[in-house]
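Same chain as my last thread, 291 residues:
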Amino acid sequence: MPNWIEAAQNKGYDIVARIIDRLHLALRCHHCGELIKVRLYTLMSAQPLCSACVRKQWILTAQAAGLTYLYRCHDDRHYAIYQAQCGHKIRRQFEFVERVAAGKTDLRCNVCHKDSEMREAAKRGWELLGPDPESDPNYRHYRHSDCGHEQRIARANLQTDRICCGGCGEQWPAAPSYLYAMRFTLPTSRELVKLGYSNNPESRLRHQLLRDADMPCEILRKVSVTSGQLAIRLEKRLHKKLRESFPDAVVPHAVFADQIKVKSEIYDIAMTPVILAELDALAEPTSVSAS
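reply #2:
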C-alpha cells in the first residue's frame, strides 16, 4: 500500500517484501542496510528499531566504558554480558554501561573486587565469608583466623585495623554488655524513652548522655548480653523494627538536642511498653538476666 511505503521511508526504512503472513514486513534500514522483521501495526503506529543499529550502539557504548560487548542476556532484555579489561565476564544493565561511558559512575569487576576484599581480610587475620547477614552494604561477614569466631565488621574498620574479635578480643566487642531502656523528662514536661546498649548503662546515663545533670531520668530496664558485638547487632535490629513499625514515634533530634547527647534512637514515651516487651522477649529465649 502507498501509505505503508511512505510511512517506512519517513521512519528510515524501505519495504522489501511481505514475510511470514500478511501482517509482517521485511524492512531495509537506510542507515546500515540490514534487514529487520516488523509487524505492520508497529510500522504504522510507532518507530521501528533496527536491531543491527541498536547492537552496534551497544558495542560502541561498551568500548567507551572500557568493556567488550559479548551478547545480550537471555533471561532479562535489560542486561548484557561484557568482558572487562581484567578478562572476567560481567553482567550489567545497558543503562548502567551508558552511565559509565558518560563518566557518571564507575565500573568494577565483582570477581576482582571480591579477591581484593579477601586479600585485605587475610592481611588483618580474617577470612571473608560473604556479604553482611543484615544486608548493610558497608559491612561484611568475616571469620577470625585465630579463634574461628564469626562477626559483622564494617569494611572501613577492617581496612584501617580498627577491629577487635568478639570471641578472643579483650575490648568491648568481646566484653559483656547490656541493652537498656531509659526514660527522660524534658523541661517542657515531655517524656521520652531511649533504647540503646552499653557495658555500663548507669555510667552512660549519668556521664555521657545528660547535658543537664538535674534533668529527671531513670533506667527502666536492662538486659545483659554476652558481648558488645552481640549487643550492637540486637540493638540495630530492634531500632530497624521500631522505625518500620512505628515511624511516627521517632522523635526529631531538634526536640532533645539541648538536653540529651545523642542524635537519634529516641522515641515518644508511648513506645515504652513496646520497647520493654521487646527487651523481655530477648531475655527469655537467650537465658540472659534482666533487671
